[in-house]
From TrEMBL:
<dbReference type="InterPro" id="IPR002701">
    <property type="entry name" value="CM_II_prokaryot"/>
</dbReference>
<dbReference type="Pfam" id="PF01202">
    <property type="entry name" value="SKI"/>
</dbReference>
<keyword id="KW-0460">Magnesium</keyword>
<dbReference type="Pfam" id="PF01817">
    <property type="entry name" value="CM_2"/>
</dbReference>
<dbReference type="GO" id="GO:0009423">
    <property type="term" value="P:chorismate biosynthetic process"/>
</dbReference>
<keyword id="KW-0479">Metal-binding</keyword>
<keyword id="KW-0057">Aromatic amino acid biosynthesis</keyword>
<comment type="pathway">
    <text>Metabolic intermediate biosynthesis; chorismate biosynthesis; chorismate from D-erythrose 4-phosphate and phosphoenolpyruvate: step 5/7.</text>
</comment>
<dbReference type="GO" id="GO:0000287">
    <property type="term" value="F:magnesium ion binding"/>
</dbReference>
<feature type="binding site">
    <location>
        <position position="61"/>
    </location>
    <ligand>
        <name>substrate</name>
    </ligand>
</feature>
<keyword id="KW-0963">Cytoplasm</keyword>
<keyword id="KW-0067">ATP-binding</keyword>
<feature type="domain" description="Chorismate mutase">
    <location>
        <begin position="172"/>
        <end position="264"/>
    </location>
</feature>
<comment type="subunit">
    <text>Monomer.</text>
</comment>
<keyword id="KW-0808">Transferase</keyword>
<dbReference type="GO" id="GO:0005524">
    <property type="term" value="F:ATP binding"/>
</dbReference>
<keyword id="KW-0418">Kinase</keyword>
């Protein structure tokens, strides 16, 4: 068993969802919650942006280490700041921490999208996309190294991620490696269905076009061409067989035809 920890600590890149998921675990599991960034703001009596402005990143990191030390035996969920792995001193604290440490792994694309919407992280304002990417690559192995478990978050809602983490408390030790792989599989499945739902949005526009120009719903030549192109493009893969392409495309195309017919009342 991963055993229900006294302290559960969430780490990961800025915008990975540490604060949001931490609050959600606390809500679902009736635990206490603390956010290191908020605690730094409380201790300093200033916002993080003001701490960066007045004391620089170095001043902020000193406060961060202080608070990180203080929360090591916090009874509940701790959300860290994205830069907690920046200092070697912090890595030492995390390596010998009594807490169970979970890495919320995501992808750069969705993370940057969310951060731009929020627009509050000082490092986001001052770094170029290339620098941001370099920061991601530099931090990723550090999060991996100090974490007891990595959860894949792409395509999952905060509530789903929280439930996945809570389920770990009753998992058998032998199951953990498998659960970590399943976390990735579940994220891919969500991405597949997200892509399919975006495909339907395009189908909707195609139906409008066909209606405008009086084009029939079913285009046999196009359907055959699409399948044969896919088979050729994936011919190197031993997993994606021609039969699999046929099966999946039959489902997708039939659903698209049904949707177009409904839309066009045909
Ligand atoms: N799984 C998710 N799906 C969709 N939106 C999410 C998800 N997780 C977080 N968000 C949104 O992304 C934004 C950033 O999330 P959050 O503040 O929890 O990140 P963080 O990891 O705590 O970042 P930081 O390191 O800067 O503290 C928020 O607006 C939040 O609502
Ligand atoms: O990734 C980072 O370095 C940071 C992330 C935020 O959580 C804050 O701790 C601060 O904006 C720095
Ligand atoms: Mg946060």
């Amino acid at each position: 068993m991963i055993k229900e920890p006294d302290t559960l600590m969430l780490i990961g890149f800025m915008g990975a969802g540490k604060t949001t998921v931490g609050q959600e675990i606390a809500r679902q599991h009736h635990s206490r919650f603390i956010d290191i960034d908020s605690e730094i703001e409380r201790v300093a009596g200033k916002t993080i942006a003001d701490i960066f402005k007045e004391r620089g990143e170095k001043g902020f990191r000193e406060l961060e280490t202080q608070v990180l030390n203080d929360v090591q035996t916090f009874d509940g969920i701790v959300s860290t700041g994205g830069g907690v792995v920046e200092r070697e001193e912090n890595l030492e604290i995390l390596r010998s921490s009594p807490a169970t440490i979970i890495y919320l792994h995501g992808n750069l694309e969705s993370t940057i999208g969310r951060l731009i919407l929020e627009g509050q992280r000082p490092l986001l304002q001052e770094k170029s996309t290339a620098e941001f990417f370099a920061l991601w690559q530099e931090r990723d192995p550090k999060y991996e190294e100090v974490a007891n478990f990595t959860v894949e978050t792409v395509g999952k809602t905060p509530a789903r991620i929280a439930a996945e983490i809570i389920a770990l408390f009753s998992a058998n030790e032998d199951e953990l490696a498998l659960l970590q792989l399943r976390s990735q599989i579940d994220a891919f499945d969500r991405q597949i269905f997200q892509t399919i739902s975006e495909r339907f949005l395009v189908v909707e526009s195609v139906a409008k076009y066909k209606e405008k120009f009086g084009i029939p719903t079913v285009q046999h030549d196009r359907m055959l061409k699409l399948r044969s192109e896919l088979k050729s493009d994936f011919s190197e893969s031993t997993d994606i067989t021609d039969e699999m392409i046929d099966n999946i495309m039959t489902i997708l195309m039939q659903a698209a035809i049904d949707k177009e017919n409904r839309q066009l009342n045909r």
